[in-house]
Amino acid sequence: MMLAACSVWLLLVCLVLYSRLKVAASAPTCTNGQAGCHVLSLANLFDRVIQHSARMHGISNDLHSEFELYFLPSKNQIGRVSRNCHTSTILTPNGKENAQRMAREELTEVILKLLVAWGDPLWHFHQSLAHNHEFSNFSSNKSLEMSDMVHELRKGVQKVIEKMKMLGIIGNSLGGLGSSESLLAPVSAEWRLMKDYDLLYCFRRDSSKIQNYLKILKCRIVPEHGC
Amino acid sequence: MRGALVLGVLLLLSAAVWCHDASPPGKPALIGCRSPDKETFTCWWTPGSPGGLPTVHRLYYHRAESKDVRECPDYTSGGSNSCYFDKSQTTLWVEYELTVVATNALGNATSNTLRIDVMNVVRPYPPKNVVLQVKQSNDNPYLFIGWQSPLNKTKTYGWVTIKYQLRVRPEKSKEWKIYDTDLQRNFSLHTVDPKVTYEVEVRCALDHSTWSEWSTTASIKIPGSSQKDRLLWVLMLVSLIPLLTAVCALVVKRNSVKQCLLPPVPGPKIIGVDPRLLKSGRAEDVVSALFGNQKLANMKARTEETEEFISVSDSRDWLLPDERLSEKVRSLIIPNSFVFGAKTQSFELEKAADGKENPVLDRSSSRPGDGRTPLSPAPELQSLRASKDAASRSAGQCPAHSYVDIPTPEDCRTPEATSDDYSRVKGVHGEDVLLEEERVPPCPDAQIQPANVASDYSRVAEVNSDTTVLLQNLPVCKERQHHDAGWTVGKKPEPPGTEVSTGSSTQLVGSGYVDSVPNFC
């Protein structure tokens, strides 16, 4: 009698737990075994990353325009020295066709390199703005946001790379987090020489590259309507 | 010598003039460049002052990091004074340095150098084919706006993402309302008012590029609440149908309706007299109406009939109920009155012909349609009236103020029934009617003379003979006495053929009472 009651109670508990598990499982978290679920989440990841990069580019655009207004009244002057961004050494595809022709791994690596290269410079840029009372709080806040975004984006892209590796979309040739230091080292000295305006100009260009490369990458890896 | 000098001067002058017309070209100016799709771009310049000679413009460019100067590959695709760079020539994230050189026979001029990064000059063209449609959603109209991308390609391989923005305003307003539609190429606006015209413009941008120009304005008028209007009209029509049918029914059956609502009052009708002829007003018509042959025949018949009733006896037979008496009286009186009336009417007619247009039988009555005619009492006809009144009164009906027997069941009170206007019939002798002057009218107020039946009768004093009845003398009103005495005072003269007696003897007419104011009903 007691045994029967106990077993019934246990059974009920088990049922409740199982139903709970089922409910939990129906939430959008995929297990490793399901291939379809993986693809969907990769697309999601890509979307988030692309959105992030778009926002970052927007902020860099705004900051650059602000600087242009206050510090450079005349544009396109012949006398201006052509800028040498510290990331010029990184070979980047300069058009749609070039980017499409590039291998996925290569393209992904380029994106990652760019993101890594800008982490420190932007942080220091923000620091210089914050300490310099000439600049408004608005600009200072934007520079901080920009710096944070670069870091976030880098993490996001690394996650995407991991996922792609897991799915076998790209090979393991691509370096992980460890390679970031190696990427950073050769260019570390040059950025300190850049003036603020040039730095913003360079970053605006690079953030645009990052955004566009990510879009092309997504279309190649996760094809969808409009690609 | 001098001539040669002059010639030389002239030559120099002409050369100077000639040289002044032609000069090296003015300096052109590069306006700017535009890339509508992130894959190609076009640059434009404005030429400087023309040198008078044919000038050629050439654009040279080189990329920032290379020294390789190249010339513009396409001068035509972008229009005049432009340079078009196609896909193969376009490099993104690289600065271009552009210059334009204007050359003519005398020299050249170089423009300013333009440094551009193609990604910085991206600006799409406005969206195409903006379409406006008014659609219905649960009886509420909403505006559906659709447009097309300015780019021809549909497959962009993720390279280009266009976002759109539209603005709407009512026609008369000056403020635009802006809506972002992101990547959608259509938009539904629900906050629209009916019967208002709306203007819509759309523009687009590629990622973070500059916004394009606003597209051409499209406008549409939202129709008035069609659904509600339709319903209203339908309801109105539906409610009108029974109304219309009722009206139709009324029209069709107007006669019966008329009968129901306005029952015809039998008009006065003289037997043998056609009122239409009388109405015409012409003498001959009236005469024929009144004195038609058939009427004479009737007259004759009646007179024969009444011969029996002429003799008045004092027997109890005469104490009959009113109805029978009235009949007898009526039959007695009518033909006589008719005869009399014929005479008097002819007289009256003559009189009328002089003065008024309308004959005796004037239809103007205070109560139209009832056939009553408040005729101005003519003295010559008063006797007739009196006799008629008597018959009618005893019959229990109302006195008629006309010369015809109108069986109208109306109130007996008639202001016109002034007793003083009537005299008793004394007797009939052949064609003459003897009138009794004596009467006992009531003594009312000055003008009001209610027809008091009781006071119109006088008590029989004694029966003299077979043909004579003596009545009691009742007090007579002074006014009446006046009237009686000179009953022609203020009245028409007494008619001929009437014997007025001032005696107190009267003819026995009926019961113990003789109706002093005999009223015909």
Automatic annotation (TrEMBL), chain A:
Gene Ontology terms: biological process? positive regulation of receptor signaling pathway via JAK-STAT; response to nutrient levels
Q: Which UniProt keywords apply?
A: Disulfide bond, Hormone, Secreted, Signal
Q: Where in the cell is it found?
A: Secreted
Name one matching Pfam family: Hormone_1
Which InterPro entries does the entry link to? 4_helix_cytokine-like_core (IPR009079), Somatotropin/Prolactin (IPR001400), Somatotropin_CS (IPR018116)
Q: Which SUPFAM superfamilies match?
A: 4-helical cytokines
Recall the GO molecular function terms of this protein's record: hormone activity
Signal peptide boundaries? 1-26
CC terms in the record's Gene Ontology section: extracellular space
Q: What Gene3D superfamilies does the entry give?
A: 1.20.1250.10
Which family does this protein fall into? Answer: Belongs to the somatotropin/prolactin family.
Protein known as: Prolactin 2
What is the originating organism of this protein? Answer: Oryzias sinensis (Chinese medaka)
UniProtKB/TrEMBL annotation, chain B:
**Bilayer topology annotation:** Single-pass type I membrane protein
Record key words, sorted: Disulfide bond, Glycoprotein, Membrane, Metal-binding, Receptor, Repeat, Signal, Transmembrane, Transmembrane helix, Zinc
GO cellular component, alphabetical, reads: external side of plasma membrane
- Claim: NAD is one of the keywords in the record: no
Enumerate the residue ranges of region (Disordered).
351-423, 482-509
Keyword Transmembrane belongs to the record: yes
Which spans does this entry mark as compositional bias, Polar residues? 499-509
In alphabetical order, the GO MF annotations are: cytokine receptor activity; metal ion binding
Report the residue ranges that make up the Fibronectin type-III domain in this protein. 24-124, 126-225
* SMART domains attached to this UniProt entry: FN3
Database matches in Gene3D superfamilies: Immunoglobulins (2.60.40.10)
Q: Name one Pfam family in it.
A: EpoR_lig-bind
Which interval of the chain is the signal sequence?
Answer: 1-19
Q: Quote the biased-composition stretches of kind Basic and acidic residues, using this chain's numbering.
A: 351-360
Q: What is this protein called?
A: Prolactin receptor
Per the UniProt record, the source organism is: Oryzias sinensis (Chinese medaka)
